[in-house]
Amino acid sequence: MSAGSLGLRAPLLQIEGLSVRYGGITALRELSFTVGQGELVALLGANGAGKTTTLRAISRLVDAAAGRILWQGAELARLSTERTVRLGIGHCPEGRRVLARQSVATNLELGAWLRRDRSVIATDLERCYQLFPRLAERRQQLAGSLSGGEQQMLAIARALMGRPTLLLLDEPSLGLAPRLVAELMDTLAGLHREGLAMLLVEQNAAAALAIADRAVVLESGNLRLQGPAAELRHDPELQALYLGGAS
Amino acid sequence: MDTLLQILINGISTGAVYGLFALGYTLVFSVLGVINFAHGAVFTLGAYLTYLLVGGAVGSNGLLAGLQLPFALPFWAALPVAGLLTALVSLLVEATAFRPLRRHGAEPLLYLITSLGAGVILVNLLQILLGAEGYAMPTTALGSLPITLSLAGAQLRTVQLVLLVVAAVVLAVLSLWLEGSRGGKALQAVSEDATTARLLGIDSDAMIRLGFAVSGFLAGIAGGLVGLSLSITGPYFGISYGLKALGVLVLGGLGSVPGAVLAGLIVGGAEALVPGEWSGYKDAIAYAFLFAVLLLRPQGLLGRPQISKV
Ligand SMILES: Nc1ncnc2c1ncn2[C@@H]1O[C@H](COP(=O)(O)OP(=O)(O)OP(=O)(O)O)[C@@H](O)[C@H]1O
Ligand SMILES: [Mg+2]
Could A97 and B192 be called an inter-chain contact, meaning their C-beta atoms sit closer than 8 Å? Predict the structure, then answer.
C-alpha cells in the first residue's frame, strides 16, 4: 500500500544533471528538473536555449553526454525512441512534421501504431475529430495540403492518438493566428484537467504560463530559473526577458 | 513476322518484369535513401534457384557439378520458393553491408561500395558453385502448357503471357499492401520521415528489414521470370539487367512506385518495337531513349523534383 502510494508521488519524469553536446557545441549543461504526474510544465527560453534538445534527449533522439533521465524512477538512457513511446512518452515535434503524402486519417491511425485496442482507438479518433473539427472535415485530404495551423492541430491530435502519459510539445503555437493560439491553449488546458501531464515548449511565454502549473526557464543551455507558473507570471526578471520586454 | 499484338504483349511483359525489379530498388531507396547495388546479384540468384527448383541440373564446371535436386517443382511453385529464399539472402545483405554502416552514420557513398562488394561476392559464389556456363529452364517447367498460344489470330509465346500474368499479380498485391495495410503505411511513413516515424513508435530498423525482404523477393521473382523467358547466360547476367533496371528506376523517378512500373512498361515497349534485324542494338536504343527523356525531365517521369533525406 505504502509502496504504491509512494510510487504515485514519485515524479513521472526526473532529469538530473543532463548535459548534451553536438560535436564541440554544448547545447545543455547540467540541467535538472522534474515533471510530476498530471503536471503541466512550461519549458521557456530564447532561440537556441536548448528547449528542443531537452525534448530530443527525453525521446532518445540524442544521447546525453552526462546525467540521467528517469521515467517513473527507471533510467531511459539505453532505450530506443520507439521504447520511450511505448512507455507513454508522446512527442509532438518542432515544425509539425506531419506525413505530407498520407491522408489526415492515416496520420492519426499511425499515431496509434503501438496500440492494439481497436475499439478504443476508434473512440479516440472520434474524440480527436471533436477536439479539432477542421480535421474531421478533411480526413481524406493529404496532410501536405493542410494549412500550417491545420497541420499543427494534426500533429497534436496524432500525438494524442498514442494515449501518452506525458506529452512533449515543441512550440505548438508557432505560426498560429492569435485567436487559434487561444483556442489551442484552451484545448491543452482541457487535456491537462483530464490528467494528461505535459512538458510544453513555447516562445509565447505568456500563453504558456497562463495554463502551466510550473515553468522552467533555460538560457544558453543552462537552467536560469524555475518555479510555480503563478509566481513567474509576475517575475520582473522573466517579464524583462520574455514577456514583452526587450529581447 | 511479328504482329502488332505480339509486339505489344512482348513489350508489356518485358516491361512489367523491369518494373518488378526496379521496384525492389525503389523500396530500399525509399526507406534508406541509398541504392542497393547487390540487387542485380540477388536477381541472378533468383534465376539459378528457380532453375534448380524446377529440376534443372548443374553442369560440369562448378563445385556442385552434376547436382540435381531429388524433386522437381512446377514453375508456379518454384518461383515463390525462390523468391522467399532470395528475400532471406537480401536480409543477409542488409545485415552485413548496410546495418553496420547505418550504426555509424556512414556517408551514402560507402553503401555503394559495400553493397557492390556483397553483390560481387554473391556472383562469385554462384560461379564457384555452379560454374560459368549458361542454363536454360527445362522445357517441362511450365508443365502441359503449349509453347505458343494463339490469341486473336496471333501466335504468342506462352512464356510472355506467364511473365505478364505473374508480374501483374505481384504488382497488384504489392500496391494493395503498400497503400492499404498497416505495415505498408508504416513503411511509407519511414520512407517519408524516419525520425517522425520513430516518434510514433514505428521501429524503423524493422521497417528497413521489411523493405529489404520484399525487395529481395521481387528480385528473385524477376530473376526466375527472366531466366524462363531468355535463359540464364551465366553468373553475370544480372549485372547488365540490373544496370538497365537502374535506368528504368531513374526514368520513373527515384522512390516513386507507380513511376517504376510506368518506366518499365515504356522501356519494355520501346525494346519490343526495335525491328528484328537491329536486335543487336536493343540496349543502345533503350539507353539512348533513357538519356533523351532524362535530359528533358531530370527528376524522372513521376519523381518529385527533389528528395531530401536526413
Ligand atoms: N543537430 C545539431 N547540430 C549541431 N548543433 C545543434 C544541433 N541541434 C541544435 N544545435 C545547437 O544546440 C543549441 C540548442 O538548440 P535547440 O534546438 O535545442 O534550441 P531551442 O531552444 O529549441 O531553440 P528554438 O527556440 O530556436 O527552437 C543551439 O545553439 C543549436 O545551434
Ligand atoms: Mg526548438
Answer: no
- Residue whose Cα lies nearest atom 24 of ligand 1: it is A47
What is the mean predicted confidence (pLDDT) over B5-32?
87
Q: Which residues of A100-109 are buried (b: 16+ CB within 10 A; e: fewer)?
A: eebbbbbbbb
Among the partner residues B182, B185, B203, nearest to A102 by beta-carbon distance: B185
Chain A: residue whose CA lies nearest to B304? A101
Which grid coordinates belong to B9?
504483349
Ranges A37-46, A173-182, B70-79, B214-223: which has the least confidence: A173-182
Query: Is A63 strand, coil or helix?
Result: coil
DSSP three-state, residue A29: strand
Ligand 1 neighbour A204 (Cβ under 6 A) = no
What is the best residue among A18, A26, A52 to mutate for testing ligand 1's pocket, by most ligand atoms within 8 Å of CB?
A: A52
Residues around the ion ligand 2 (C-beta < 5 A):
A 52, 94
- What is the ipTM, given to two decimal places? 0.91
CB spacing of A101 vs B193 below 8 angstroms: no
Q: Catalogue all structural domains in chain B, each as residue range(s) with its CATH number.
A: 2-296 (1.10.3470)
**Is the C-beta atom of A22 inside 6 A of ligand 1?**
yes
CA atoms within 13 A on the CB side of A176: 23
User: Range of A208's domain?
Assistant: 10-88+164-173+182-247
Q: Label residue A51 exposed, middle or buried (CB < 10 Å: 0-12, 13-18, 19+).
A: buried
Residue B95 has pLDDT above 80, yes or no: yes
Instruction: Give the global pTM.
Output: 0.86
Instruction: Report if residue A21 sits inside a domain.
Output: yes
Out of A135, A163, A191, pick the residue that ends a domain. A163
Residues of chain A below pLDDT 70: 1-9, 241-247
